[in-house]
User: What shape does this take?
Amino acid sequence: MSDYLLRRLLYAFPILLGVNIITFFLFFVVNSPDDMARIHLGNKYVTTDAIEKWKGERGYDRPLFYNSEKQGRDKFLDTIFYTKTVKLFVFDFGQSDSGRDIGYDISQRMWPSLMITLPILILGLFLTISLALAVAFFRATYLDTFAVIMCVCMMSVSGLFYIIGGQYLFSKLLKIVPISGFDDGFLAIKFLILPVVVGVVGGLGSGTRWYRTIFLEEVNQDYVRTARSKGLSEKVVFYVHVLRNGMIPILTGVVAFLPSLFLGSLITEAFFGIPGLGSYTIEAIQSQDFSVVRAMVFLGSALYILGLVLTDISYTFVDPRISLR
Assistant: This one.
């Protein structure tokens, strides 16, 4: 196990380095620091002195990769690439272009994001897997046909419809929950109910239809016929054998949601006024805060790679035939 984890961490380094290099080129080569200064200063006619001052305050006045004016290692260390990109590997996110500590902002804003995404993940998995098992159990019946049609209809509806429709119905008409906002402690629950419900309902159609396909593929496997020949009931076959063997592709799909656990949902947080990392990223994009955007891209990549490792480890618990060597 330890050897496997070490190999995966070594594999992760070149992937993160590649993501960082691509992001660096997009932000500092395609879009030069001079362009960033003009965007932030917001004036049509910006003086050269103002541009140089803005770059100097944020450390963008250094060369990109190689500083010929320095000696020894400083030729490579006193560069924009090292100060703005390499330090991300030790999760030193530095300062935003507006002067805020990005690491502190992330540590504060990740909790509202988790308060939304964790319930959506747990409740969504429970409901979609339960519904998919029930539909697969009654396969080739009118109930199965009706469920598939409903799933396709729900998949065809944009997520914005669920958000706007939920706000209109439950906040404006029924006035059950606030339409948007956030608060600290237990007072935040009333602001989280509607986003969680919308997130779960919005994913029911696609999740149920996908898991139904997985379970129907497992039903035709040899081990299912063997279990039935031993006299096991259909419920035991489905809810023990089929469910357990269907967990591998389910776990593979769950890993794609892991970055969203911390980074939050961009659209959901923006519409419901949740001060999470999703809205933090949106605000950074709107204000052209490139340091924050780079940090969030790196954090999302690192979380996705971590999710892949955790998924491989979880395979060993649901399928003893799989070993990590």
